[in-house]
Amino acid sequence: MAVAEDPVEGGAVPVLVAGAGPAGSTTALLLARLGVPCTVVERRGDIHPLPRAVHLDDEAVRVLQRIGLADAFARISRPATGLRLVDARLRPFAEFRRDRAAGSHGHPESNLFDQPDLDRVLRAELVRHPLVNLRVGTEVTGLDQPPDATAPVRVELSAPGGAETVCAQAVVGCDGAGSAVRAAIGSRLHDLGFTDRWFVVDVRSARPIPTWGGVEQVCGARRAATFLPLPGDRYRWEFRMRADETAEELARPARMAELIGPWRVPPTQLEVLRAAEYTFRARLADRWRVGRVLLLGDAAHLTPPFIGQGLGAGLRDAHNLAWKLAAVLAGGVPGVAPEEVLDSYQSERGAHAEAVIRGAVRVGRAMTGGAGVTAALRRPLTGMLLRLPGVRARAERGIVPRFPAGPLVDRVRHRHDLPGSVCPQPTVRADGVATPLDEVLGDGYALLTAGPVDAGLAARARTLGARTVRLGHDLADDGTLLAWLAAGGASAALVRPDRVVQATSPRT
């Protein structure tokens, strides 16, 4: 695959992104959309051929929308009906439905896909974009960061032509769980108390396997398992491994037939694409930034897959960081010191990533943990609790980001206040054309108004170059935005480029 010419000459690049997986590719494309040239280095010569991530929620797809790839993602994914908890005989006892055509972020709430398909879409966009230089077969081997945080970072690379050094104004480490960038800045992954071995089987099936359209979580006492119907003819099973088991043993035809037996699928109709052990871990890096070197995605955090937020967390990192880094490289955010802008990345995303990881651990332990009497009693009890409307509604809301007060988020006045939360994205009508809200708001700050705007917020919006959008005048929607502002006690909201609310005007 051909790559673009390096947009910056002389061995210097504005931003070097280490890793061309979904998180790194999305980061580079978000930066390029904001006019920042990027060089992306990827040690593999081609995309990873095996399935890995399989789920994105509507907020993560909204991030793909910002780089123009929502339609492309829709073509390679399928909306899922949600999560169903079943016993060892596949009898359901609790269900979380996610079958709305569009959630609060304007896309299906749960989406199943095959990661190599997404990698191909992102790789093609990297190659196409004139501000992105993709260098395959190349990886970071070391960093030399001067004491002056604004000075260029010297990056040592191993490339097909041999070792070389480039200088970058900033480095973003998206190079996975074994991140060389993380090691270079002395950051360490802290164990959040969960490590579990699972046997992952990805297959193609010559005939459709009957499903309810969503994920099945088997909460059996003898062996926990997960079944996911992917797009087309692809499916995935995940089985918890016992301490004395190996992947080689479980991959034998007789054992494989035993594992998939409850689904009544003849093994002869399956083509096994991958059958391997995978260790689910809960880890969080202690430092996400040193100077102008930052960590993102699996380099910064690892989560068990039980709530489907692994890759989505990386895309949220990218959305949070890209506009801040672009602003700092362009001179900063008015009224906020550049170091404060970059520090806000970990203070905002780190707390949310930890909440997601701990939530995934709790869910994993409740639904799949152990094989003793206590675990056997806990699973049906959990199912009964989930039938209660209040408990069920709280569980179905998932873990929604609410960033703490800081230089880019005002302190809340009451618990329903909007700062730190994410603005919804309904379909709106602007100039008579139906379009997602983000396409109207643009790439910078926006001020959404449904009434008077206090003088202080109006002045901040002008300083930040915010686009003013008057509900009912500049656009019309189905009432979602008016109801959202009213629920937050606001007549206007100042929305950041990543769609997080920075400040509001109270209703009078």
UniProtKB/TrEMBL annotation:
Enzyme class name: oxidoreductase
FAD-binding domain sequence ranges: 13-359
Keywords assigned: Oxidoreductase
Organism per entry: Pseudonocardia aurantiaca
Recorded GO MF terms: 3-(3-hydroxyphenyl)propionate hydroxylase activity
Protein name: Bifunctional 3-(3-hydroxy-phenyl)propionate/3-hydroxycinnamic acid hydroxylase
Domain of life, per lineage: Bacteria
Pfam families reported for this sequence: FAD_binding_3 (PF01494)
InterPro entries, alphabetized: FAD-bd, FAD/NAD-bd_sf, PheA/TfdB_FAD_monoxygenase
EC number of this enzyme: 1.14.13.127
SUPFAM superfamilies in alphabetical order: FAD/NAD(P)-binding domain (SSF51905)
